[in-house]
Amino acid sequence: MIFKQLREPLSSTYTYLLGDQDSGLAILIDPVIAAIDRDLAEVHRLGLQLAYTVDTHIHADHITAALEMKRAVGSKIAAPAYERLPCADVGIEEGKPFRVGSLVLHPLHTPGHTDGHFAYLFDDRVFTGDALLIEGCGRTDFQNGDADALYKSVRGKLFTLPDETLVYPAHDYKERFVSSIAQEKRRNPRLGDGKTLEQFKAIMSNLNLPYPKFIDYAVPGNRQCGVCPSHLPEDLAEYCKQMTESQQG
Amino acid sequence: MIFKQLREPLSSTYTYLLGDQDSGLAILIDPVIAAIDRDLAEVHRLGLQLAYTVDTHIHADHITAALEMKRAVGSKIAAPAYERLPCADVGIEEGKPFRVGSLVLHPLHTPGHTDGHFAYLFDDRVFTGDALLIEGCGRTDFQNGDADALYKSVRGKLFTLPDETLVYPAHDYKERFVSSIAQEKRRNPRLGDGKTLEQFKAIMSNLNLPYPKFIDYAVPGNRQCGVCPSHLPEDLAEYCKQMTESQQG
């Protein structure tokens, strides 16, 4: 099994490349449009064929590379069935293992950051998307976010995995790359160390985070499996220029 | 493959249990005498037979369980050949893979914390002992410690492993359980982020750490593969009482 953790620095997103050496097939979890050339070059360098892109949820901070990768190399698009995206080839559901060659992802519905959010358990690793971050979690104040639901997803579902399960989040803003269930159960300041639902809700309702600058473009773009916005206000132009340049270059 | 990360709280030591389901054989890396009953119970619970204990180095802060486990269940003792321990059944050397059933450890001589220190590469995991800790490293001011050597061991050897390699240290004092080579290359305040040898030596020579309270008992005890001191000064009595109680209970 091939495993690569790729970092997209503009949005501090982690993309995960899983490769099955026997079938030559690969999956990319949460690929970012800004890094499409780098990620496809990596798949190629490893002698693999990209079979599927798989998103954990409808992202608000960046554009998924799913559609552009499909156009570039013919990969199929897997996304949570809950979202009913017409552009998806496969709808992910809990209880239905997602298989590509010998790679098997076990989808875990983990709502709370968004209602359609999924984590993916892969052997002794769990790709937690924005549900569980290293010493943090995704915000719960948009996209049908719900602190009650997130508490249940993390403490009632992810924290029941074996202690040694490796936690690979969709983002880290401090260049941490990996954690474990044991580590988050002890150290996560929002959800670990026996935090109650009331404590968690108090933390989440007092974060006072700014409105995400890109959300009104990213969410509709990602509901189309990754359409980069063509008309953007000036303050987002540089961000998207970088995305477009990376995409072409 | 079975993998368990066990924590001994008195010395904040991590012991790693590796099990091969086909042969039923297990290895314990850096077992602690205080936790002997718990660790052997875990091996038994998993339906495994303890074939070997393997130490990364001669510990100064705790007593290895190697000898007591040999007495209890007949496991063999593997230790760095460099140390020429008469009590060891197998001497570990770099370049000679250590095989137990289908488990294969690749020993990496990583001097600097102690001169005879070894790390063990196991597939995509490296057990770094006290050479590389999460956002830290072992001290270099006793047991033939040498900052020049440790810099070379970490930056010249461990940091050349693939970025995704999981770093499992022998200790963590803040309940962190796992890191990766990429993470330590970026975040380790002593050895990461392009630190020069001169910077590292300056950091290590200014730590002003106290003399380790247990070293004068632990080192000779561990050179006998784990003999618990029978006569201790009063200030260490409570520590050893806890060790003995755990050992019996």
TrEMBL record, chains A, B:
**Domain Metallo-beta-lactamase as annotated: residue spans:** 12-171
Tell me the keywords, alphabetical order: Hydrolase, Metal-binding
GO: which molecular function terms? hydrolase activity; metal ion binding; sulfur dioxygenase activity
A GO BP term, please?
glutathione metabolic process
Top-level taxon: Bacteria
Q: Name one Pfam family in it.
A: Lactamase_B
UniProt protein name: Zn-dependent hydrolase
